[in-house]
Amino acid sequence: MNLQHISWTTDGRLRYLDQTHLPQQELYREADTVDAVIEAVQALRVRGAPLIGIAAAMGLTGAAARLAEEELTRDWLRRAVDRLAATRPTAVNLSWAMARMREACDRALREGGGKEQLVSGLRAEAQRIWDEDAAMCRAIGEAGLPLIEERATVMTHCNAGALATGGIGTALAPVYVAHESNRQVAVISTETRPLRQGARLTAWELTRAGVPVTSIVDGAAAAVMAQGRVNLVITGADRIAANGDVANKIGTYGLAVLAWAHGIPFYVAAPYSTFDLSTATGSGIPIEQRGLEEIDTARGASALNPAFDVTPSQYVTALITDRGVIEPPYTETVPRIIRGERITGD
Ligand code: MRU
């Protein structure tokens, strides 16, 4: 796919593709302080649940590398990790990646050895988080491949593709694997209001990869389904509760209900790092509320801007994960499979 949307600079800082400028411009930026990484994540320059975890881990490493030895204390590291973890509350991958970085810090501090060793421990852990995500995306693609028949049209929402991960994406991974296997597959991408990740980002990366993609406005989803143009829906997730309830980009819940009403299978694709077994149901998932300047309305009118919604698991046909396809009853299958047991019926 050859997408350089995140990378290390030669001196170990985070370099990223600023997704707010896509598709018009491919603008790359560098972030070498914790504040700069937080700004990039909050402004959605870097976005998508797995990618923000990876970018925060790399950004933390670069920010640590820049400090003088005496400034790089346990307190500085703890505070930096906590601030980064709190930047976007819904995507559990971010706090999961930061918990790993906190452990890597503790490990390096226990071993002693000074700044150089500490920074190299952080860098190794950040790179592992990235590499593991890339492998999980590939495994999701392979697990989801049998669900994509020849000439299938997949509807997706927001962007859960390569731009949102360290690999080939989550929702788009089965599409890319099908395309690589010379299966004819096409995508309908919902626009995704208010920030248009579907129209700007999903359409951009699929076009670049040679996968046919058709953009629709969010309000067209029902009519397009009713016309029989959609074989299956696949979305990503920011957090999946122990009972299979799914938090994802605002509008996902509506699409799931529409798919159910039209008898279209609705799948959610995510790596194990998106599952939060400590949250029993979707009602326990924190929902990020974003600034009202993102909503275009009349002066004097009020607005609401929840960035995510929760799809009750009853609308989810199956979960496509790096550990295989998880089917209902989710209260049994999700905890068992995500803890590492084998899939039912094996
Ligand atoms: O606000 P965003 O653009 O970060 O939201 C992204 C999504 O909702 C994705 O579907 C989700 O993070 C999964 S990305 C593999």
CATH domain class of the largest domain:
Alpha Beta
Order of SSEs: EEEHHHHHEHEHEHEEEHEEEEEH
User: What is the quaternary state of this protein?
Assistant: single chain
In the CATH hierarchy, the architecture of the largest domain is: 3-Layer(aba) Sandwich
Biggest β-sheet description: 7 strands, mixed
Average pLDDT figure? 96
Helix content: 25-40%
Number of DSSP E strands: 14
Identify the CATH homologous superfamily of the largest domain: Translation initiation factor eif-2b, domain 2
User: How far apart are the termini?
Assistant: 33 Å
Shape annotation: globular
Strand content: 15-25%
Q: Please give the count of helices.
A: 10
Please give the domain count. Answer: 2
Side by side, the strands of the main sheet go: 6-5-4-7-10-13-14
Question: pLDDT below 50 for ≥5 consecutive residues: which ranges?
Answer: none
Distinct small molecules: 5-S-methyl-1-O-phosphono-5-thio-D-ribulose
Cα gyration radius (Å): 20 Å
Structural class: alpha/beta
**What's the CATH topology name of the largest domain?**
Rossmann fold
What's the topology here?
Layout: E1 6-8, E2 14-17, E3 28-31, H1 34-42, H2 49-66, H3 74-85, H4 92-111, H5 114-144, E4 152-156, H6 173-180, E5 185-190, H7 197-209, E6 213-216, H8 221-226, E7 232-235, E8 239-241, E9 246-249, H9 252-261, E10 266-269, E11 275-276, E12 308-311, E13 318-321, E14 324-326, H10 330-338
Parallel strand pairs: 4-5, 4-7, 5-6, 7-10, 8-11, 10-13
Antiparallel strand pairs: 1-2, 2-3, 8-9, 9-12, 13-14
Helix pairs in contact: 1-2, 2-3, 2-4, 2-5, 3-4, 4-5, 5-6
5-S-methyl-1-O-phosphono-5-thio-D-ribulose is lined by residues 44, 47-50, 91, 158, 160, 164-165, 170, 197, 235-238, 248-249, 307.
